[in-house]
């Protein structure tokens, strides 16, 4: 269909026309910029993992609720020298014989959060503690650099 014939030559109608053509012609074609399944899965995992970040004079503290998880189920890593990655998997309990779920509301599956750390962090001094269902990851700050003192050069 040619929208110019109907007097509709605006960019909006041109874009709508392109979108309609893509849905008809390229239904199975992945040439347009659709997100991959792994990207959608990771985005959902990150959205489902809320976190609190606190700054103290000597450190940053990341707090994430991890109810029912053991420390072995949680992974804390540093990627690319400045990205803190907290991930893991929450699994469903095995059903006991004769019992069945009437309602399933607790989240299961993989979770992940990524935080880009500031430049003043000491990635060699990171500690993680999971207590009472709350994971606390402490990233210590580097001491501030000493101001450069003027260098005196002796005149000969």
From TrEMBL:
<dbReference type="InterPro" id="IPR031107">
    <property type="entry name" value="Small_HSP"/>
</dbReference>
<keyword id="KW-0346">Stress response</keyword>
<dbReference type="GO" id="GO:0005737">
    <property type="term" value="C:cytoplasm"/>
</dbReference>
<keyword id="KW-0963">Cytoplasm</keyword>
<dbReference type="InterPro" id="IPR002068">
    <property type="entry name" value="A-crystallin/Hsp20_dom"/>
</dbReference>
<protein>
    <recommendedName>
        <fullName>SHSP domain-containing protein</fullName>
    </recommendedName>
</protein>
<feature type="domain" description="SHSP">
    <location>
        <begin position="42"/>
        <end position="156"/>
    </location>
</feature>
<dbReference type="GO" id="GO:0006950">
    <property type="term" value="P:response to stress"/>
</dbReference>
<dbReference type="Pfam" id="PF00011">
    <property type="entry name" value="HSP20"/>
</dbReference>
<comment type="similarity">
    <text>Belongs to the small heat shock protein (HSP20) family.</text>
</comment>
<dbReference type="InterPro" id="IPR008978">
    <property type="entry name" value="HSP20-like_chaperone"/>
</dbReference>
């Amino acid at each position: 269909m040619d929208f110019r014939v109907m007097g509709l030559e605006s960019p909006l109608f041109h874009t709508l026309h392109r979108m309609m053509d893509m849905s008809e012609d390229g239904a199975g074609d992945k040439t347009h910029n659709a997100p991959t399944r792994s990207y959608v899965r990771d985005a959902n995992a990150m959205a489902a993992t809320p976190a609190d970040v606190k700054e103290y004079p000597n450190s940053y503290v990341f707090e994430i609720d991890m109810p029912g998880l053991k420390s072995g189920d949680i992974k804390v890593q540093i990627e690319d020298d400045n990205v803190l990655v907290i991930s893991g998997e929450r699994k469903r309990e095995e059903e006991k014989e004769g019992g069945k779920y009437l309602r399933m509301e607790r989240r299961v599956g993989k979770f992940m959060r990524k935080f880009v750390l500031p430049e003043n962090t000491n990635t060699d001094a990171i500690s993680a503690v999971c207590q009472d269902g709350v994971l606390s990851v402490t990233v210590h700050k580097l001491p501030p650099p000493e101001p450069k003192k003027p260098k005196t050069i002796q005149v000969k």
